Amino acid sequence: MLKKITLLSVLPFYAFAAGNGSGEYDIIPRAVNFVLFAAILYYFIATPLKNFYNGRIAKIASRMNEIQEKLIASKNHKLEMMKKLDLAKQEAINAVALAKKEAEIITDKIEAETKMEIKALEKTYEEHKEYEIRRMEKEVVQAVLEEIFEDQSLQLQQKEILNIMMKKVS
Fold first, then answer.
1. Pick from 42, 1, 40, 34: which is nearest to 17 by CA?
2. How many CA atoms lie within 13 A of 89 on its CB side?
């Protein structure tokens, strides 16, 4: 492989260095001219090429640095967001626990108020029941007394009426 590369690189020198058939070869002046041309070309182009190459390396390095900075910033941002997420989860858990406690307190309060209302209603019912019983007793007593006083066949004496009333009262 090395032989092929050497042959291909040397072959153009032989092709262009040959004279017009007179047997003179001007390969040395042409080689010197080529070396001078390459040196002059290198002298004028080397600095701009080096600057271009170094500038390109600097651009690539700065881009890499920017990318690294963005990567670090995004990782830091991700960590902050994860912390905020954990904090939000903890706050949500606390809020749910607080809501459950508040619900229990409200339930207990409503239950106590309901029991008090039921007791008040039962007391009112009992009072109303007693009132109605007394009213009915009065009506019955009044009706019986009116019947006794209106009926002529049942003439009772005052002593008997007092005894009946005493029995009713006791």
1. 34
2. 6
When pLDDT is cut at 50, 70 and 90, the band that residue 164 belongs to is confident
pLDDT tens-digit readout, 81-96? 999 999 999 999 999 9
Report which residue type is found at 153.
S
pLDDT of 60-117, one tens digit each? Answer: 999 999 999 999 999 999 999 999 999 999 999 999 999 999 999 999 999 999 999 9
pTM above 0.85, yes or no: no
Task: Record the tokens describing residue 137, joined without a space.
Answer: 């007793």
Tokens, residue 93: 């858990």
Tokens 């002593």, located at residue:
159
Query: How far is the CA of 150 from the CAs of 138, 154, 163, in angstroms?
Result: 18, 9, 19
3-state secondary structure of 25: coil
- Residue 15 tokens, joined: 């092709």
Residue type at position 151: D
